[in-house]
């Protein structure tokens, strides 16, 4: 949630042009509210498996604090409200992309893919990649190459991030019948895929610099972070394991990679904003 | 038809405390939204 809001804010800050601070605040608020709406609708739809998984069984619906119907109504009202306020106060391009991201998260990821395919978080990851595009569109009223590059960075970052989680939450997902990659293809194949996606992420994260949009501050940060992520992924791949691929270290490298991936995206996007303002005032 | 189970005094007090908390939260949200919509209106009018 915080990454969603933060990446949306950065998309807004680095976009060319000017947006009144009140409208900028409104745009970020709409992104945050829409993310909350998606969470509420997701928790309504997944209440059966959330009750089974250790990681999610204390969420409000399985814990009995909120009625399922109330959560659904709350989510729909927040989603519609966020899109309407974005459209009427900021612009309709940003509202359209916001609506698309909500629809993608609810219908494509939650309802269609999550319980059907191990590609759930690969394709569904697009839903979490929209915020910088929304932030950019809030300022410019359009969608250009640079926000699409930022979209692509989050899109490729998502699988190694969630597969690291899936490695150490494998028992939960297996019990709930969610076909995450470790459940379907096993931990070894998951570790291999984490390395492959991280290898793709490194050059992609340099694209804003290669395209001339970002300067040396961003390039250095992206390079250092990329090497760090690769090292994390390599440690996951070379974790001590038994013949079935089960970790003998309680998936310590996967836990570390999951934490690092969160810091990675925060720092990468923060570096983009810092670079932008350094470039502006240099 | 059975009557709903009666709350004890302690449960009723706890229920009222939670209800009051929710009411205050709702009031703050409504005040915040009113202030935001007012500010948006002013900004939009200034740009016309």
How would you describe the overall organization of this protein?
The complex is a heterodimer of chains A (282) and B (48). In chain A, 77% of the residues lie in helices and 0% in strands. Chain A is mainly alpha-helical. Chain B is mainly α. In chain B, 79% of the residues lie in helices and 0% in strands. Chain B has one helix at residues 9-46. The model of chain B has no long low-confidence stretch (mean pLDDT 88). The chains are: A mainly alpha (282), B mainly alpha (48). Chains A and B meet through helix 2 of A and helix 1 of B.
Present the secondary structure layout.
The complex is a heterodimer of chains A (282) and B (48).
Chain A: H1 2-14, H2 21-45, H3 47-52, H4 68-90, H5 92-113, H6 120-123, H7 126-129, H8 131-140, H9 145-168, H10 170-176, H11 181-185, H12 187-205, H13 207-210, H14 216-237, H15 252-281
Chain B: H1 9-46
Distance between the termini of chain A: 33 Å
- Largest pleated sheet of chain A: none
For the largest interface, the chains and their residue counts are: A-B, 7 and 7 residues
How many β-strand runs of chain B? 0
Radius of gyration of chain B: 20 Å
Total helical segments of chain B: 1
Structural class of the helix and strand makeup of chain A?
mainly alpha
CATH architecture identity of the largest domain in chain A = Orthogonal Bundle
Stretches of chain A where pLDDT is under 50 for at least 5 consecutive residues are none
Q: What is the assigned CATH homologous superfamily of the largest domain in chain A?
A: UbiA prenyltransferase
SSE order of chain B: H
Order of helices and strands of chain A: HHHHHHHHHHHHHHH
Number of helices, where a helix is a run of at least 4 consecutive DSSP H or I residues of chain A: 15
Largest sheet of chain B: none
Q: Tell me the fraction of residues in β-strands of chain A, as a range.
A: under 5%
The dominant shape of chain A is flat
Q: How much helix, percentage-wise, in residues of chain A?
A: over 70%
Approximate helicity band of chain B: over 70%
Mean pLDDT over the full residue set of chain B: 88
Hey, roughly how much beta strand do the residues of chain B contain? Answer: under 5%
